[in-house]
User: Fold this.
Amino acid sequence: MDHVDRVLEQWRTERPDLEVVPMGVLGRLKRLHDRVSAQLERVYAANGLTAASFDVLATLRRSGAPYALSPSELIAWTMVTSGTMTNRLDRLAAAGLVERKPNPEDGRGSVVALTPQGFTLIDRVVTAHVANQHKVLSALSPQDRAALDGLLRQWLGAFEAPQSAP
Amino acid sequence: MDHVDRVLEQWRTERPDLEVVPMGVLGRLKRLHDRVSAQLERVYAANGLTAASFDVLATLRRSGAPYALSPSELIAWTMVTSGTMTNRLDRLAAAGLVERKPNPEDGRGSVVALTPQGFTLIDRVVTAHVANQHKVLSALSPQDRAALDGLLRQWLGAFEAPQSAP
DNA sequence: TTCCTTTATCTTGACGTCAAGATATATCGA
DNA sequence: TCGATATATCTTGACGTCAAGATAAAGGAA
Assistant:
């Protein structure tokens, strides 16, 4: 009987006509996301980062040398709007973690690159982040993790399929 | 090979020392949360609500007659800060969906109640919301939904256990 | 070339959220 | 009863996000 169960019980009493099983799954998905995010934030914050800045730095780092992408490419990887990315890059540039250079191939655009400080920082934080992720998942056995991953993958596939937009 | 798989592949190339299996599970959790939230927002927006306002109205509705709770009780159910709740209630009161009354039992506090318009609206929106939730989960078989719910419940339990704060 | 359309990025304005602090009222012990 | 402490709520200031619109440059057609 967790928090979600208590919510469902209230609904069953007040609106017995509603089918609340999906509400249970989606409620737990949301609560887990909130809890997991809060735990991951700890490592970011301990290193002066936020989820937003970590997201950008990690995307640049894993893209490989020369650790530089256009804002458009960063937008595609991170799934945020252009205004959000402009804001993120402004802050990261002010912190000296990335550098904007003109794009030699396209006068409209620019290229965002990790600075040496940005590279050093993200390489260190990612290591701590992965250890933190491992801890977050430690409540599940390896078998359960695999089962969960399979179910999430299948579910996510329904959203990412070309014609799925419901 | 979905978006998360592509991210993991980049990390395996750039940082083969990292254990990226947890990253896959957590990455899919986040993406699913984002996708599901976006889909649920559609029904809220179609009725002039946001996730924030739906959250408050639904909490009042399922609490049963007289559909009134203190801000503190709403804060406990919705897991937001007091400042956030003040802001939500200001907007809902301005929209005429809830009403703040002084709490006869505690001069410091107040009681927030659904107005008749608020009740009518949330009762209608909840019905559409549940149908939407059902659609969101339709990619999974009933068996898979049950398996997923069990895994999520188990995982969430680790966070909600008394001494679990890591 | 010249103009029209598309694309890349930034700007603006409005939300929603939080942490920290302010204010008013309760409550409890001396 | 009085003062110290606790509690309920609101205020303030800073982020992060988005939608919509503004700029500037690229690309293509005539």
Observations:
- The mean pLDDT of chain B is 92.
- Chain B touches chain A through 64 residues (CB under 8 Å).
